């Protein structure tokens, strides 16, 4: 199983694992023990890429051998309690990190998409979690604006929709 790259977003890593196993990302989510939302035809993990439920965390640790810290570093919730105001009223059925995303006028995170640096992806197709922050605008390495659409993939730049027909390129191990 491929290990996550430093700073890699969870959806990016899940795509890589699915490609390595040659199965659809939704199936990989199930095999890895992610808790999925009921009522959908395809598997849709709960709070995908935002936060892990306790059940998902336990399933992932068992299936991958990765620890809680490594798995948490791939989630947007890693920015909890920072200047990004990743807090909110807790609801009984969701982590407090998720509750804050539902508050109006909290555009600090892209919960269903990601920006991207085409130059970074050409060198190593890993989608960093920080690209999903609303304030992410410029690649510090290449000094170019991050894009919302990758024309050379002709797809929306999204590492979070693991069920989209187009998938990010797969990195070699």
Mind summarizing the main beta sheet?
Answer: 2 strands, antiparallel
Helix content: 25-40%
Low-confidence stretches: 87-92, 100-105, 151-173
Our measurement of the CA-to-CA distance between the termini, rounded to an integer number of angstroms, reads: 10 Å
H and E string: HHHHHHEE
Please compute the radius of gyration using only Cα atoms: 15 Å
Question: What structural class results from the helix and strand content?
Answer: mainly alpha
Tell me the strand percentage band: under 5%
Q: How many separate helices?
A: 6
Mean pLDDT over the residues: 77
Strand order of the largest sheet: 1-2
What shape does the CA trace take?
Answer: globular
Q: Tell me the number of strands.
A: 2
Provide a compact summary of the structure.
The chain has 173 residues and is mainly alpha-helical. It is 27% helix and 2% strand.
Structure description:
With 173 residues, this protein is mostly helical. Helix content is 27%, strand content 2%. It has 6 helices and 2 strands; from the N terminus they run ααααααββ. It has helices at 10-21, 25-31, 54-64, 68-72, 96-101, 118-123, and strands at 149-150, 155-156. A two-stranded antiparallel sheet has the order 1-2. α1 (10-21) packs across α2 (25-31). The longest helix is centred in the N-terminal third of the chain and has 12 residues, at 10-21. It is globular, with a radius of gyration of 15 Å. The chain starts with 9 loop residues before the first helix and ends in a 17-residue tail after the last strand.
